Amino acid sequence: MATTTTTTTAEPESGEGAQEMMEVDRRIESEESGDDEGKKQAVCIVTDLSQQSLREEQNGDNLTSESEIPVDMETISLDPEAEDVDLNHFRIGKIEGFEVLKKAKTLCLRQNLIKCIENLQQLHILKELDLYDNQIRKIENLEALTGLEILDISFNILRNIEGLDQLTQLKKLFLVNNKISKIENLSNLQQLQMLELGSNRIRAIQNIDALTNLDSLFLGKNKITKLQNLDALTNLTVLSIQSNRLTKIEGLQNLVNLRELYLSHNGIEVIEGLENNNKLTMLDIAANRIKKIENITHLIELQEFWMNDNLIECWSDLDELKGAKKLETVYLERNPLQKDPQYRRKIMLALPSVRQIDATFVRF
C-alpha cells in the first residue's frame, strides 16, 4: 500500500504505530483505564498529547510560540498514489495542496496547527479523517466527503456540532475535549455506531433518537444530571457516563442489549433501574455514594464489577453476585469492607470464580 513521502525539515515526533496510538488515545479519552496507576499514566499521556489545547484554554486565544511556527507546505511532498496519508505532528497550519491525494482513503493530520477545515473537497473516496489536537473552531467544508466513515476532531475548540448533514455514511464520530454544550444536528447520521463526546460541557442527553444503529455512546466528563432520552438506542452495547452529575440510575429499560455500563464518579446513592439489562458483563459504579449492593441478582452474565470508593460495609451484600458464575474481576477497595483484616479471603470465599480483587490477581 502506498504511503506518504516527505522532504520537510520538520520531522514528526513519532511516525510509527500511528494507528495503534490512535486506539490507545481513544481508550484514554473514554476513561476506560484500570487501576489508579494506570489512570495516572493515562492522565499524563493525555496531558502530553493536548498541550496545545490546554494552552488555548488558559490563554483564551490561539497563541503560537516560536517553536510552533507553521511549516511551509511546499516542503512537504504528497504522494498522489498514497491511500494512507499520515502527517501527524508536522506543524501544518493550513490544509492546502491536498487535491493531489485523490486515492487517499485515510488522512491523519493529528497534532498540527490547523485552524480551519478546508480544501478537502477533491478527496472523494476518503473513509477516515483525523484532525485530533489542532485549533479548529468550526466543523465545516466536509459536504463533499460523503463516503467518510470515521471522523475525529477531538481536542480542538469546537463549541457546536454542525456541518455533518451530508456525512450519512459516518460510523464513528469523535469530538472529545472540546467546548460543546449541546448534542444536536446528528439526525442524518443514521449509520453511526460510535459517538464519543467525552470532556465537553454537555448538560443533557438529547437529540439522539435517530441514532438507532448506535453501538457505543461515551459522554464522560460532562455536566449531565439525568439519564434520559435513551429509549430509541436499543442496539447500544456500551454506555459510558462517568464523571458527571447523576444521582439516580434510570432510563435504561429499553437498552436490553447493553453489555458495558460505566457510571463511576457521580452522585448515585442506590443501585436500581437495571431490571431489563440482563446482558451486562461489565458494571462500573465506582466512586459514588452507594451504601448497599442490591437489585443485581439477575445480572448472571457479569464478568467485571467495579464498586470501589463507595460506602459498602456489609459482607452479606456479596450474595447479590453469587449467581454471576463468570465473574472474574471485583473492585471493592476503599469501602468500609476493606478495613476487615480478612478482606481478600472473604471475597474469595464468597465469590470463588473471581480471579482479580482490585488491582491484584488472586493466588491459589
From TrEMBL:
<feature type="compositionally biased region" description="Basic and acidic residues">
    <location>
        <begin position="23"/>
        <end position="40"/>
    </location>
</feature>
<dbReference type="InterPro" id="IPR003603">
    <property type="entry name" value="U2A'_phosphoprotein32A_C"/>
</dbReference>
<dbReference type="Pfam" id="PF14580">
    <property type="entry name" value="LRR_9"/>
</dbReference>
<dbReference type="GO" id="GO:0005634">
    <property type="term" value="C:nucleus"/>
</dbReference>
<dbReference type="Pfam" id="PF12799">
    <property type="entry name" value="LRR_4"/>
</dbReference>
<keyword id="KW-0539">Nucleus</keyword>
<dbReference type="InterPro" id="IPR032675">
    <property type="entry name" value="LRR_dom_sf"/>
</dbReference>
<feature type="region of interest" description="Disordered">
    <location>
        <begin position="1"/>
        <end position="42"/>
    </location>
</feature>
<keyword id="KW-0433">Leucine-rich repeat</keyword>
<dbReference type="InterPro" id="IPR025875">
    <property type="entry name" value="Leu-rich_rpt_4"/>
</dbReference>
<dbReference type="InterPro" id="IPR003591">
    <property type="entry name" value="Leu-rich_rpt_typical-subtyp"/>
</dbReference>
<dbReference type="InterPro" id="IPR001611">
    <property type="entry name" value="Leu-rich_rpt"/>
</dbReference>
<dbReference type="InterPro" id="IPR050576">
    <property type="entry name" value="Cilia_flagella_integrity"/>
</dbReference>
<protein>
    <recommendedName>
        <fullName>Protein phosphatase 1 regulatory subunit 7</fullName>
    </recommendedName>
</protein>
<dbReference type="GO" id="GO:0007059">
    <property type="term" value="P:chromosome segregation"/>
</dbReference>
<feature type="domain" description="U2A'/phosphoprotein 32 family A C-terminal">
    <location>
        <begin position="340"/>
        <end position="358"/>
    </location>
</feature>
<comment type="similarity">
    <text>Belongs to the SDS22 family.</text>
</comment>
<keyword id="KW-0677">Repeat</keyword>
